[in-house]
Specification:
The chain is mainly beta. The chain has a domain at 3-35. It is 9% helix and 27% strand. The protein has 1 helix and 2 strands. It has one helix at residues 31-35; strands spanning 3-9, 15-22. A two-stranded antiparallel sheet has the order 1-2. The protein starts with a strand and ends in a 20-residue tail after the last helix. This is Transposase. It comes from Methylorubrum rhodesianum.
């Protein structure tokens, strides 16, 4: 099993909110709960993958 972390940060990269999703869920499912109730003038999105390769 895997877990996805969907995070909302401010312009400086400070964590504002986050949600956890099951690994098989699409990332966009976690976006709506993060941005509900927050006023913003601009929205920038990025998708990042992390892998720890053992050599």
């Amino acid at each position: 099993m895997t877990t996805k972390i969907v995070a909302l940060t401010d312009a400086l990269g400070n964590l504002v909110r986050f949600t956890l999703l099951a690994g098989q869920r699409h990332d966009s499912i976690g976006v709506i709960p993060l941005i509900e109730g927050i006023a913003y003038k601009a929205f920038v999105a990025d998708k990042v993958f992390d892998a720890n390769w053992i050599t």
